[in-house]
Amino acid sequence: DSGVTQTPKHLITATGQRVTLRCSPRSGDLSVYWYQQSLDQGLQFLIQYYNGEERAKGNILERFSAQQFPDLHSELNLSSLELGDSALYFCASSVTGQGSYGYTFGSGTRLTVV
Amino acid sequence: LAKTTQPISMDSYEGQEVNITCSHNNIATNDYITWYQQFPSQGPRFIIQGYKTKVTNEVASLFIPADRKSSTLSLPRVSLSDTAVYYCLVALYNTDKLIFGTGTRLQVFP
C-alpha cells in the first residue's frame, strides 16, 4: 500500500457519459498529480494541484477537469467520454510539489468506455 | 525538460545482472536523473536517483559518467519479479511534474 488511495479501481461506462475519479493523497502530502496511461502507451501527465490550487497543466483535454478540495483529496472529472478515453488513470502525491524523488503513485483507476 | 532515449525492451534470465542505459544528451546542469519501475496495472514506483558518479541502494545501482549525457541502471541478480517497465527521467530536482518516456520493458525468464 503506497498510501495514495484511488477509487474506484474499475469503472465501465458508455460513450457520452461523465465519470468522476477520486484520489486521496498520502498523509501529509499537499500536491496531487493526475496521469493517463492508455494501452501500451506511456504515462501522460494531465494536471497538478498544490494545496488546492492548480499548479501545472499537461495534455489535459477540455472535456476533462480536476480540482483539489480543502481536505486535499482530488477529483478528476471526465465528460463526453469517448472510446479513446479508455485508460488507466493514476494519481500521485508529493509533499511539496517539488522533487522527482518524492512522488508516490496510487494503484490507478481502470476506465473502460464502451 | 531533457529528452531521454532508452531501449524499448530487454530480456534476461534469473540470476543475471541487468544494465539498462538511458541517453540524455541535453541534460542541464541542475537536472537529476531518476528511475521508476512500473509493474502491469500498478503505478510507477521510485527506484533510485542520482546527480553524478554512482549511487547504490538496496534495490539497484545507478552509474552516471562525468559528462552526465547517459546513465545506467544496474539490477543485480534479477528475479522473475523484476519483470516490469523501467523509466528513466531527467528533470530539475524541484520540478513541478514528471514527464515519462516510453520506458524499457524488461522481461526476466526462468
Brief rundown of the structure:
The complex is a heterodimer of chains A (114) and B (110). With 114 residues, chain A is mainly beta.
Could you explain how this protein is built, in words?
The complex is a heterodimer of chains A (114) and B (110). In chain A, 40% of the residues are buried. Chain A has no helices and 11 strands. The mean pLDDT of chain A is 91. In chain A, strands 2, 4, 5, 6, 9, 10 and 11 form a 7-stranded mixed beta sheet that branches. A 4-stranded antiparallel beta sheet of chain A has the order 1-3-8-7, with no helix packed on it. Chain A has 114 residues and is mainly beta. Chain B is mostly beta strands and 110 residues long. Chain B contains no helices and 9 strands. In chain B, the strands form 2 sheets. Chain B has a 5-stranded mixed beta sheet, with no helix packed on it. In chain B, strand 3 (31-38) and strand 4 (45-50) form a beta hairpin. Chain B is globular, with a radius of gyration of 13 Å. Chain B starts with 8 loop residues before the first strand and ends with a strand.
- The first-to-last residue Cα distance of chain B is 38 Å
* Secondary structure tally: strands of chain B: 9
Oligomeric state, counting identical vs distinct chains: heterodimer
Runs of chain A in which pLDDT lies below 50 for 5 or more consecutive residues are none
Strand order of the largest sheet of chain B: 1-9-8-3-4
Which overall shape of chain B is indicated by the principal axes computed on the Cα atoms? globular
